[in-house]
TrEMBL record, chain A:
NAD(+) binds at residues 273-287. NAD-binding protein involved in the addition of a carboxymethylaminomethyl (cmnm) group at the wobble position (U34) of certain tRNAs, forming tRNA-cmnm(5)s(2)U34. Keywords: Cytoplasm, FAD, Flavoprotein, NAD, tRNA processing. GO terms for cellular component: cytosol. Signal peptide: none annotated. It holds the Pfam family GIDA_C_1st. It comes from Shimazuella alba. This is tRNA uridine 5-carboxymethylaminomethyl modification enzyme MnmG.
UniProtKB/TrEMBL annotation, chain B:
Keywords: Cytoplasm, GTP-binding, Hydrolase, Magnesium, Metal-binding, Nucleotide-binding, Potassium, tRNA processing. GO terms for biological process: tRNA methylation; tRNA wobble uridine modification. Exhibits a very high intrinsic GTPase hydrolysis rate. Involved in the addition of a carboxymethylaminomethyl (cmnm) group at the wobble position (U34) of certain tRNAs, forming tRNA-cmnm(5)s(2)U34. K(+) binds at residues 230, 249, 251, 254. The keyword GTP-binding applies. It comes from Shimazuella alba. PROSITE patterns: G_TRME (PS51709). Residues 220-379 form the TrmE-type G domain. One of its GO terms (molecular function) is metal ion binding. Homodimer. Heterotetramer of two MnmE and two MnmG subunits. The lineage of its organism: Bacteria, Bacillati, Bacillota, Bacilli, Bacillales. Its EC number is 3.6.-.-. The gene is mnmE. Its cofactor is K(+). This is tRNA modification GTPase MnmE.
Length: 625, 458
């Protein structure tokens, strides 16, 4: 019943946010790539909130862009509004967020995939992997097609043994009533993968014709045009607003009265849900003293009246959901067009992966996205591009690309996953990054474009533009360091005009700009630049000089880390043979198999003494220790 | 090599009660120069030379100790960095003070195994000693962990926990402002953060004051006297302390709980623990006492196992001989004044050759031998709690100082208009430093705090 289909370099399973980036990266790196997915109509589908970006996540989108990925470009073309968040705070935490037109986003991504020369797109369900001598050699689909390949990237999201739960109702399903992936889930288990059961949920959707926005606060996009991608030149100016309303005592009372019908509390849900996106019933129980919660009403697109009700994620029965909506200001008459639900699914315990995202168990098999225990489109896309790059590099017999924690949020994300694992769906937060001052979204291109170029995902013309930008910034910084201001009557008068104290001594402009009340623009008033700088270039000059002290502090910490990171742990290390290790450390080390002493030292339960002992053992070349 | 400069007590006390403090790092010479007064500045002398001088407190300029200082320049050293070794003569307190003075000059206290780590990182380690080094690292860290645990039950840790709680609440709040900009939590103001920091700073200063007064140092080597009921443990305790604190009777099971007493045995500070005699028992109160004794045994730095000269070895004795394996132990055979019924050879075999001191508490015969044995063990480095105790003290002081500096940095940053999310970096460092004092894991706490303190999500 099965037949031999064509052969590829790389096969990607699943065209979600991870799969799309994987497939594009591999194809663009010159690999003959096949992308198999359940339905061509749900490519890059957003099963939950119609938005991309925000703190940490927006940083990741910029990083993906700097590596030559698609997410940033795609959302730049298809959003209904964009906002820069945290502008009142420091530059490290500014964050761009877009509201997406979901349908357009999908259509646009599909077109990009279709147009990619090295990429073949096919609608099909993968049921098995082909494993030969323990190595992944291809896949077998439900229709019996056997595709061979050198590497496989698995990005099946929340589909593995997916189960939708609404009140008492439960049925096997992928998100939004897509087909679940049952066979593949069992197959992975048979291969010996350790799996966990996670859960997530989504709120109901409503028809915008049936809501009263006069009772809500308007949330418009920024007037100033914004974009994620370095390559975007056209900006969308016609934006749609979102709306803010609140739950109230009535809502809470109603939910309290119906808690017994919530699967969360009747024990029907076994999966572990994320704390950062609790269902409304969960919020009301855990934060009983809060008398209202925010509800954002967000359009799902330009061509639809469907609105997303952020803040009301729930798995309460359908009738309860409808009634809850009616208690909320402006939603009294809201017509529910989709019912909210919770979904349970299998995920792979991510400590089974190398930092390249290749599985330790089955060489040649890479996994990325929600299957690795994360949550979020951006987190998925980030892993997707890295897995795609590394799957392609493996085909091309090159070393994997691994970003470290000081280089990118993507590095933080993957290192956390493969080193510490996770016991709930993992979401990026700025507080997970120890060097977040270095990992700003304004400098993502400066951090990663060289890498993207070296990998072959950044085209020459873009790279040249990037080099020019970098040089402009460096030249100007150099100039400000060199240029000294001598206190004389004229200068003091100018300073007074800028609202800053007199100079006592000769001072470099690079130091003057550190005064909180002065901006780069002010400095150019005192001493104009011979070169014309773009807004982004000026921003860089200002940030890099103004916060130099803090940036230096972070760099020193990075230096320390780098030395440990640079000490690789050779393959031959046998943790059972190292007698001095504590038993907990031994067990964890064996499980994680860290690639460097740096990674080893981040494993919980491995203390400095264990690290020293490990060092000595390595130094001795494995002779008894 | 770019590396900060670290210091630690390199040896347990030598025979002649000299302790060596080893300093390693590019600034080793300049740092020691700050506290050293001799004929020449150390930065000007030749490598591998020894110099006589004094250590002065960098603040008060008071003399702390008379020392010999060995200067060894990179790369011909153990760590391949500049190394200075200070040999102190003035005993425990002088070593503690010298180390303290050094830490004020910007030197950091080495972590367990850190010299080895550096030697390794700099491409040098004495392979023949690798195994010994491993044992040492293991032992020291386990001890350090023990100290941390012990401390964590005390008052200091209660204060530190409260402080950390304060800090982490603020951190979580800042994080939420950053990660969930639209969430309707109050936005923390600079003024609020500065006020919080002022309060934290005050508390830190108070803690530093107590720590400097050496509360923690006064601990001494935890020495547990264990043994079957009625062998004479309490009597020995009284004899060593020259007090009648422990009740002595001829009724087995007299001591029901652990009694602590500080004594100075030939210049060595001991924290003596008299324990309930260990045996299987039905009496609930005594059972608890026995449990406590077993705990005391586990946390002890030195064990004095007492047996009875005039009785045959009993099953309980044999059990105890098993238990003490792996602990620094002296076997004390009491009641030497009574007829001998015990078999020394058997004890020797069962204990794996541990030192045996026969004595009589009653006649005081052999008591001085025991005191001498304790001293020798201590100076030979077999009991190495000594440096750990005060290193842990110095370490705490340093960590508290560091936390304080971090908090001051937060305040000055915020006052200069640095955005809160940047100043937060220093606040997080303070929180971590305090976490190290009580040996608490740090990484995941903040995230937990965020989600328990705020109701977030879609
Ligand atoms: C109900 C719900 C609520 C969510 N809520 C949030 C939230 O609040 N916040 C948040 O950040 N994230 C949320 N997410 C997560 C976010 O949607 C995902 O993290 C992200 O879409 C994962 O991307 P992915 O590429 O890993 O997988 P997906 O986007 O799920 O894509 C998986 C792809 O694999 C395909 N596939 C599956 N099995 C097979 C097979 N056997 N053969 C071939 N193709 C297959 C599917 O067709 C699909 O195209 C939610 C997800 C769901 C379902
Ligand atoms: N003959 C003789 N008797 C001693 C000696 N040391 C202690 N004793 C006696 O032994 C008895 C028990 O002494 P304790 O010190 O109470 O014994 P203990 O080990 O603390 O006993 P518990 O607290 O019951 O575990 C008392 O009557 C002491 O006077 C000794 O060296 N010689
Ligand atoms: Mg007693």
């Amino acid at each position: 019943m099965s037949y031999q289909a064509s052969s590829f370099d790389v096969i990607v399973i699943g065209a979600g946010h991870a799969g799309c980036e994987s497939a594009l990266a591999a194809a663009r790196m010159g690999c003959k790539t096949l992308l198999l997915t359940l339905s061509l109509d749900t490519i890059a589908y957003m099963p939950c909130n119609p938005s991309i970006g925000g703190p940490a996540k927006g940083h990741v989108v910029r990083e993906i862009d700097a590596l030559g990925g698609e997410m940033g470009k795609n959302i730049d073309k298809t959003h209904i509004q964009m906002r820069m968040l945290n502008t009142g705070k420091g530059p490290a935490v500014y964050a761009l967020r877009a509201q997406a037109d979901k349908v357009l986003y999908q259509r646009e991504m599909k077109k990009v995939l279709e147009e990619e020369p090295n990429l073949t797109l096919h609608q099909n369900m993968v049921e098995q992997l082909i494993i030969e001598d323990g190595v992944c050699k291809g896949v077998i689909t439900r229709t019996g097609a056997k595709y061979l390949s050198k590497t496989v990237v698995l990005t099946t999201g929340t589909y593995l043994r997916g189960k939708i739960i609404i009140g008492d109702l439960q049925y096997e399903s992928g998100p939004n009533n897509q087909q679940p992936s049952i066979h593949l889930a069992h197959h992975l288990q048979e291969l010996g993968f350790d799996m966990v059961r996670f859960k997530t949920g989504t709120p109901p959707r409503i028809n915008s014709r049936t809501i009263d926005t006069t009772k809500m606060e308007i949330q418009p996009g920024d007037e100033e045009p914004r974009a994620f991608s370095f390559e975007t030149k056209e900006y969308i100016t016609d934006q749609l607003p979102c709306w803010l309303t609140y739950t109230n005592e009535k809502t809470h009372q109603y939910i309290q009265d119906n808690l017994h019908r919530a699967p969360m509390y009747s024990g029907k849900i076994e999966g572990r849900g994320p704390r950062y996106c609790p269902s409304i019933e969960d919020k009301i129980v855990r934060f009983a003293d809060k008398n209202r919660h925010q509800i954002f009403i967000e359009p799902e697109g330009r061509e639809t009246l469907e609105m997303y009700v952020q803040g009301l994620s729930t798995s309460l029965p359908e009738d309860v959901q409808q009634d809850i909506l009616r208690t909320i200001d402006g939603l009294e008459k809201a017509q529910m067009v989709r019912t909210g639900y919770a979904i349970e699914y299998d995920a792979i315990v991510p400590t089974q992966l190398w930092p390249s995202l290749e599985t330790k168990l089955v060489p040649g098999l890479f996994t990325a996205g929600q299957i690795n225990g994360t949550s979020g489109y951006e987190e998925a896309a980030a892993q997707g591009i890295m897995a795609g790059i590394n799957a392609a590099r493996k085909v091309q017999e090159q070393e994997p690309v691994i970003l470290d924690r000081s280089e990118a949020y993507i590095g933080v994300l993957i290192d956390d996953l493969v080193t510490k694992g996770t016991n709930e769906p993992y979401r990026l937060l700025t507080s997970r990054a120890e060097y977040r001052l270095l990992l700003r979204h304004d400098n993502a291109d400066l951090r990663l474009t060289d890498k993207g170029y070296a990998i072959g995902l950044i085209k020459e013309d873009r790279y040249q533009r990037f080099i020019a930008k970098r040089e402009a910034i460096e030249t100007e910084i150099e100039r400000l360091r060199r240029t000294k201001l001598t206190p004389n009557a004229e200068i003091q008068a100018q300073l007074a005009e800028l609202g800053t104290p007199d100079l006592n001594n000769v001072m470099e402009l690079a130091n003057l700009i550190k005064r909180p009340e002065l901006s780069y623009q002010d400095i150019t008033k005192l001493s104009p630049s011979p070169n014309e700088l773009s807004d982004e270039e000026m921003e860089q000059v200002e940030i890099q000089l103004k916060y130099e002290g803090y940036i230096q502090k972070s760099l020193q910490q990075v230096d320390k880390m780098k030395r440990m990171e640079g000490k690789r742990i050779p393959q031959w290390v046998d943790y059972t043979a190292i007698s001095g290790l504590s038993s907990e450390a031994r067990e964890k080390l064996q499980q994680v198999q860290p690639v460097s002493l740096g990674q080893a030292s981040r494993i919980s339960g491995v203390n400095p003494a264990d690290i020293s002992i490990l060092m000595i053992y390595i130094e001795q070349g494995g002779r008894t220790a | 090599m770019e590396n900060d400069t670290i210091a630690a007590i390199a040896t347990a006390m030598g025979e002649s009660s000299i302790a060596i403090i080893r300093v390693s790092g590019s600034d080793a010479l300049t740092c020691v120069d700050h506290i050293y007064q001799g004929k020449n500045k150390l930065t000007t002398v030749l490598s591998h030379t020894v110099h006589y001088g004094h250590i002065l407190d960098p603040d008060t300029k008071e003399k702390i100790d008379e020392v010999l200082v060995t200067v060894m320049l990179a790369p011909r050293t153990f760590t391949r960095e500049n190394v200075v070794e200070i040999s102190c003569h003035g005993g425990l307190i002088a070593v503690e003070q010298t180390l303290g003075a050094l830490l004020k000059t910007g030197v950091r206290l080495a972590e367990p195994g850190e010299f080895t780590k550096r030697a390794f990182l700099n491409g040098r380690i004495d392979l023949s000693q690798a195994e010994a080094v491993i044992d040492l690292i293991r032992a020291k860290t386990d001890k350090a962990a023990k100290v941390a645990i012990r401390q964590s039950e005390g008052k200091l840790s209660t204060h530190i926990r409260a402080l950390r709680n304060d800090i982490v609440e603020t951190l979580a709040h800042l994080a939420v402002n950053v990660d969930y900009p639209e969430y309707d939590a109050d936005i923390l103001t600079s003024q609020y953060v500065v006020e919080r920091c002022q309060a934290i700073n005050q508390e830190l200063e108070r803690l530093l004051l107590t720590a400097r007064q050496g509360k923690i140092l006064r601990e001494g080597i935890a020495t547990a006297i264990i043994g079957r009921p009625n062998v004479g443990k309490s009597s020995l305790m009284n004899a060593l302390t020259q007090e009648n604190k422990a009740i002595v009777t001829d009724i087995p099971g007299t001591t029901r709980d652990v009694i602590e007493e500080y004594v100075n045995v030939r210049g060595i500070p001991l924290k003596l623990l008299d324990t309930a005699g260990i045996r299987e028992t039905e009496d609930i109160v005594e059972q608890i006492g026995v449990q406590r004794s077993e705990e005391a045994l586990r946390s002890a730095d030195l064990v004095l196992l007492m047996l009875n000269h005039s009785e045959k070895l009993q099953t309980e004795d044999i059990r105890l001989l098993e238990k003490i394996k792996g602990f620094p132990t002296i076997i004390v055979i009491n009641k030497l004044d009574l007829p001998k019924r015990i078999d020394y050879e058997e004890i020797r075999q069962r204990s794996g050759g541990k030192q045996i001191i026969p004595l009589s508490v009653k006649t005081e015969e052999g008591l001085s031998l025991l005191e001498e044995a304790i001293k020798v063990m201590f100076f030979a480095g077999q009991v190495d709690m000594n440096d750990q105790t005060y290193v842990s003290n110095a370490r705490h002081i340093q960590l508290l100082e560091q936390a304080k500096q971090n908090i001051l940095d937060v305040m000055s940053g915020v006052e200069q208009g640095v955005p809160l999310d940047m100043a937060e970096i220093d606040m997080k460092n303070a929180w971590q430093a305090l976490g190290e004092v009580i040996g608490e894991a740090v990484a995941e706490d903040l995230i937990d705090q965020i989600f328990s303190q705020f109701c977030l999500g879609k």
